[in-house]
Amino acid sequence: MPRRGFALIAALVVLAVPAIAQGAPTRDVLYVGNNWDGTADVVDPSTFQVLTRINIIPDIDERMAEIQSNPERLGYFLAIRELVGEGHDQFVDDMFSSHDGRYLYVSRPSLADVVAFDLRTREIVWRVKVDGNRADHMAISPDGTRLLVSASTARVVDVIDTAAGEIVGRFPSGDQPHENNYSRDGKLIYHASIGSVYTPLDEPAFDATKGERIFEIVDADTLQVLRKVDMGQKLDEFGEPDMSGAVRPMALAPDERYLYFQVSFFHGFVEYDLQEDRVLRLAHLPLSDEAAGMRREQYLLDSAHHGLAMNPEGTKLCAAGTMSDYAAIVDRATFAYTIAAHGHKPYWSTNSADGRYCFVSFSGDDLVSVISYDTGQEVARIPVGDHPQRMRTGELQSGLLGTAKRR
Predict the structure, then answer these.
(1) Which of 5, 116, 154, 238 is a plausible cystine mate for 279, CB 3.0–4.6 Å?
(2) Which of the four CATH numbers 2.40.50.90, 3.20.20.70, 1.20.1630.10, 2.130.10.10 does domain 26-299+392-402 have?
(3) What is the spatial distance between Cα 272 and Cα 379, in angstroms, rounded to a whole number?
């Protein structure tokens, strides 16, 4: 056959592979980021079994050589270890899968980047260095084409094109950009910065030293900030002048009018009306005896609670009581609560794809608790890697990572 014929056949084969991959069946999985390990566990959300573990830092030698050759990067790397990582390097923060279940996108705080893994080969297919010197929480657009990542030290949120692996935009934030969420239709971004949570000046009298902490609503297309809210001021207007304005994890009600969020030092969460632009209620959750005796300086990165999810019906919330070592299911209407599980340092909450369960990472115990929204009770515990934090429900193409094909 002439060379031209071989070339044509080769081109057709190359074009056919992505088409086949895009049409491949997928399965729901839970991705668990083991921050200090530099790994991610892939969990079956029905059997609660770990299917496999992915090495998220296969390029660590190359990255460390870059860091050690740059005094500024090395300084930040060591500071992140001591001030944020509790003496450990932070190798996995947040992660999302592509909608076709072929790729996994991961932010790596200590390495100040986001990487995309091909779940067929377990290899990095692109790497994006974020602005500044630390990568933090992420969000993926409903159509899967854009990835938000908080660039902690640069006071911006970078917007990454997931296909190209390039920063295609950014929008400004306050000090230490943190949480990101898209609206259901993908038109809005809800973002918050938390300020300097690693400083010892934690009493209300020194609140201003934490820097600018703002909640923002951003146009997802133009990246223009549509509204900036000082939640500290809003809590003051509500009658709580000594509460922090640092918005931590948040959950939107199904109608996206009401926002529920945790703030630094508060054992519970806040209910906020986005339409009326005001605080409506506070959910006060219990303190353990140990937490009740702690000074604010002993709180982990100012987090009294860190982890909040809402069931799809919008009737219950799942809260991680970080400093009191529990997870609670809270009735949205009455704020009545049930302590559903105990463990050391719970640090994130997320829902199963079918909405039946809330997964809570107990970072100090290296496990994930599975809690039923219906019963408010723990139904399983999943051993995972060292210091699990962020977890995300996502997709995995059937047959990848050594998993069984869907029948």
Answers:
(1) 238
(2) 2.130.10.10
(3) 31
